[in-house]
Write a structure and sequence with these properties.
7-stranded mixed beta sheet, alpha/beta, Aldehyde Dehydrogenase, Chain A, domain 2, 21 strands, binds nicotinamide-adenine-dinucleotide
């Protein structure tokens, strides 16, 4: 028996105006675990109206910063208090292991709200030194207005928290739109916001699919869209926002290169590459996917990677021993296995994995971590974002050549460098065209560090003070001091 979840519009939880619902499934078993209202155009209109009223007439944008900070802090406390249940829900809906859901998804959501609670009292402008006599000139930062926050299925609670905490800290009102595959924890987050004392209409939550997102982006009452998802949909959002020049920030796809140098710590590079490649079963925008390895070392690197991958326990995220969980849906599993077939047909050498799991796990979307070597730059698996546990080793002869090949992609989100030589590590970190670079480590994030991409990996940054700027407009104020 599954509970039906409703939409949060203004101060009420309501079914979709059309009465339509959709189901969400456990990727480890294929079983239905929830039913959610499917928001349509009428619901979007009502949610935007509620957010508009809350912004134009409500207390939130003008609330004293310290009072707003206390509300954000309460959201963090409630998230923490319910952490166990939220982590379990995330695992059931998304597939990630329970330890990951607990230690990363929930913990980081909590810390993000605490971090932005701190920012509420530090949203400062500056006094400017203009070269005109008798002027006082200063800037302020003001909220943008009604923000549509559209998130993907890979880190539902985490990514909704990144957007929501920054948008709320700066005094905006919002409409959350989680991905249709993983709506559950975002709905709980909206419920927590209400309990924490967020005023009516400041946080609205519309579950639904692409059509719900499309209606939000097209709505003239939405001032800003913050989107995390695929580059393809991101481009569509830019086109749709052109009509009224909505503010848009975007965190899009990636195809992270790793450059392993000759002087790298080989063992550490294997362990970190595997961890970075398989984080959330490879369903991570910054997952390491293309490993550029000196030709003399590339066979050994691929074999060690495959041997280490073969030892990882694959299974449902709720099983304590599982290290690699299922992919989010059957459709996505089919898509990823399609890439594996393409890799083989285009001549890459499969060193390990590549198969779905059968037996007891056949109903889940499980896939063995898959390692290819002798991958060349023009192969589909080296160019397109796979978003699954598929790692490609690409041998190189010269370091400059490896850098040029690492940068030969339309994406520019994450990258990793493996080198024990300090100067070489710094040089490579600078040479790689990506928004984030991790040296001698798997990818990490922290609320204090900006997150985002170059090239077709997005516009703008989330987290840190930069993330806060994405939700404010800068105003220049001129005061004449002449009598
Ligand atoms: P997606 O683009 O298919 O969907 C993302 C969200 O947009 C969902 O909520 C979906 O319902 C909605 N949507 C779909 N079509 C829409 C439209 N036309 N207008 C408005 N909204 C629409 O992405 P996905 O498959 O859910 O997520 C995977 C993608 O997300 C990958 O490409 C991954 O790299 C990217 N991602 C990027 C980051 C980052 O920080 N750069 C983080 C996580 C995921």
């Amino acid at each position: 028996m599954t509970t039906s979840r409703q939409l949060l519009i203004g101060d009420a939880w309501v079914p979709a105006a059309s009465g339509t619902e959709f189901s969400t499934f456990d990727p480890a078993t294929g079983k239905q675990i929830g039913v959610c209202a499917d928001a349509g155009t009428e619901d979007v209109n009502r949610a935007v109206a509620a957010a508009r009223t809350a912004f134009d007439q409500g207390a939130w944008p003008k609330m004293l910063p310290a009072a707003r900070a206390r509300v954000l802090w309460r959201i963090a406390d409630l998230l923490e208090e319910r952490g166990e249940a939220l982590a379990r829900m995330e695992t059931l809906d998304q597939g990630q292991t329970l330890s990951f859901a607990t230690d990363v998804s929930v913990s980081f959501a909590v810390e993000t709200f605490r971090y932005y609670a701190g920012w509420c009292t530090k949203i400062d402008g500056t006094v400017k030194s203009v070269s005109i006599p008798d002027m006082l000139t200063y800037t302020t930062r003001e909220p943008i207005g009604v923000c549509a926050l559209i998130t993907p299925w890979n880190y539902p609670l985490l990514l909704a928290s990144w957007k929501l905490a920054a948008a709320l800290a700066t005094g905006n009102t919002v409409i959350l739109k989680p991905a249709e595959d993983t709506p559950l924890t975002t709905i709980e987050l909206a419920r927590i916001c209400v309990e924490a004392g967020v005023p009516e209409g400041v946080v609205n939550c519309l579950s639904g699919g692409a059509e719900t997102g499309r209606a939000l982006v097209a709505h003239p009452g939405v001032d800003k869209v913050s989107f995390t998802g695929s580059t393809k949909v991101g481009k569509g959002i830019v086109a749709a926002a052109a009509g009224d020049l909505k503010r848009v920030s975007m965190e899009l796809g990636g195809k992270a290169p790793s450059i392993i140098t000759e002087e790298a710590d080989f063992e550490a590079a294997i362990a970190g590459s595997l961890e970075g490649g398989l984080v959330n079963s490879g369903q991570t925008c910054v997952a390491y996917t293309r490993f550029f390895v000196p030709r003399s070392m590339s066979d050994a690197f691929a074999e060690h990677l495959a041997a280490a991958a073969a030892t990882l326990q694959i299974g449902p995220g709720l099983e304590p021993n599982s290290v690699v969980g299922p992919l989010v849906s059957r459709t996505h599993l089919d898509r990823v296995t399609g890439y594996i077939e393409k890799g083989i047909s285009e001549g890459a050498r499969l060193v390990g994995g590549g198969s779905r799991l059968d037996g007891d796990l056949a109903d889940g979307n499980f896939l063995q971590p898959t390692i290819f070597t002798d991958v060349t730059d023009e192969m589909t698996i080296a160019r397109e974002e796979i978003f699954g546990p598929v790692l490609s080793v690409l041998p190189y002869d010269k370091l400059d050549e490896a850098v040029a090949r690492a940068n030969d992609t339309t994406y520019g989100l994450g990258a990793s460098i493996w080198s024990k030589d300090l100067a070489s590590a710094h040089r490579l970190a600078s040479a790689v065209r990506s928004g984030m670079v991790w040296v001698n480590m798997s990818p990490l994030c922290d609320p204090a560090m900006p997150w985002g991409g170059m090239k077709q990996s997005g516009w703008g940054r989330e987290l840190s003070g930069s993330g806060m700027n994405e939700y404010t407009e800068e105003k220049a104020v001129w005061i004449s001091l002449r009598n």
